[in-house]
Prior knowledge:
alpha+beta; Peptide Deformylase; five-stranded antiparallel β-sheet; three-stranded antiparallel β-sheet; 4 helices; 25% strand; globular; binds nickel (II) ion
Amino acid sequence: MAVRPIVRAGDPVLAKVAEPVADPTADDVAILVADMIDSLHAVGGGGLAAPQIGVSRRVVIYFTGPNGVTDWPDDGPIGMTVLVNPEIEPVGDEQWTNWEGCLSMPAMRGRVPRWKRIRLTAVDLDGKRTTRLVAGKQARTVQHEYDHLDGRLYPSRMVETQTLGYLEELVRSGQVPAYTPNKSAAYLKGQDALLARLKRVGRTWAL
Length: 207
Ligand code: NI
């Protein structure tokens, strides 16, 4: 287990464009992802980009639980997913605005417009490049994490900037539901190819 501290807004690493990964199959990339998984679980978040643990490389991890999805097409629950060198493009011109938070800006939330559906292309730790359509909550998470790779935090995407506020106050006034951190490794279950790759660098989890 290698939990690394989450870098907070203001650290220059979060404002930099991260470097592409030359070889997604390299052991150091698998070790980075294992550290990201441990760090994400330690704080109970749903997504993390490598710059958030101080590593300026284009790597993202995320998952979406069943309670975080919409009934839109392409927006189902998804287990722990690794995106190396992701590329995204909007599908259609529909946007939707919802509350967003960021582990690098703890205890705050703001309303952020995002593309409703995107086409996502990324490489996994076995070097396999895939393209998929994602929507809703998953598309929001991917756009948020992708922005970290380009040195952007969600306030720079906000239109209703007056909605930026402290989670505690937003919950107290009934504007957002109470937040329960997810500290389980359950979203690794069934991600067999990923688990097999991480095992080869000596990293396993009790599921
Ligand atoms: Ni973030």
